[in-house]
Design goal:
This protein is of the alpha/beta class and 238 residues long. The chain has two domains: 3-93, 2-Layer Sandwich (Nucleotidyltransferase, domain 5), CATH 3.30.420; 98-199, 2-Layer Sandwich (Nucleotidyltransferase, domain 5). It has helices spanning 34-44, 82-86, 95-103, 143-147, 149-175, 203-214, 231-235, and strands at residues 3-8, 12-17, 24-27, 52-57, 61-62, 65-66, 90-94, 108-114, 118-124, 127-131, 137-138, 141-142, 179-183, 197-199, 216-221, 226-229. A seven-stranded mixed beta sheet has the order 14-13-8-9-10-16-15, with helices on both faces. The chain is globular and about 45 Å long.
């Protein structure tokens, strides 16, 4: 089975397909609609072949359905039919959850994505739980406003690093993970990782997109937005 994996971000869309060694990317931003994205992807991947598609979306997703319009892209995503647009089966998952799935080894893992916003997901004994921690209150705003790109631009790198360390400490105390992965494009601005953290790489999103089809049993809980993964398969390859 050949898989096209799409990682949607607030500034770029990244692509990788089975058999391809170099990811492709193009600019996203507040004017990009889903139809425009699909059109760009089809042009860029015209020479690729794929049977199914994995999409990492920057917002809440349940049963492959987008629940809310994105904060950093144009509207029109909630009811968009990706399977019809691509002409093949499509799985949609929260973008942080897709990267978390690709980063997972074992036990209780918290993933935090330092990018345009703050992506978050947790995996406990192979059970994936997408989260929206970035929009929770923090100081006089939200976590995302302090450790996302807006915080980086507003406070500068030195203060931003302190806020990242504080946010990680608070979330670790609340959720009690035994493994914390910091991913996202802005993790490169950290001089050193907070205690008990390991760095993730954006390529893990592509690993997660592959695991959606090869290491996921397909059951999902309505109450928890959960995907049940096979622990043995989810632990392989990382």
């Amino acid at each position: 089975m050949k898989i096209l994996i799409i990682d949607i971000g607030g500034t770029h869309v990244k692509l990788l397909g089975t058999g391809q060694t170099t990811p492709l990317k193009f600019v996203s931003g507040p004017k990009m609609t889903p139809a425009q994205m699909v059109s760009n992807i089809k042009k860029l991947t015209a020479s690729w072949t794929y049977d199914v598609v994995s999409i990492g979306y920057p917002g809440p997703v349940l049963h492959d359905r987008i629940l809310r319009e994105p904060h950093n892209l144009a509207p029109g995503w909630v009811n968009f039919n990706f399977s019809k647009a691509f002409g093949c089966p499509v799985k949609v998952i929260n973008d942080a959850a897709m990267q978390a799935l690709g980063s997972y080894k074992t036990g209780r893992m918290l993933f935090l994505g330092l990018g345009t916003g703050l992506g978050s997901a947790m995996i406990v004994d192979g059970l994936l739980q997408p989260m929206e921690l970035g929009h929770l209150p923090y100081r006089d705003d939200t976590y995302e406003d302090y450790v996302g790109v807006r915080g980086l631009e507003r406070f500068g790198k030195k203060k931003w690093r302190k806020y990242v360390a504080d946010v990680v400490e608070r979330l670790a105390a609340a959720l009690e993970p035994d493994d914390i992965v910091l991913g996202g494009g802005n993790v490169k601005y950290l001089k050193e990782l907070p205690q008990k953290c390991r760095g993730g790489v954006n390529a893990n999103a592509f690993t997660g997109g592959t695991r959606l089809w090869t290491a996921v049993s397909g059951s999902e809980s309505d109450a928890g937005h959960q995907l049940s993964t096979r622990k043995r398969a989810a632990s392989a390859g990382t």
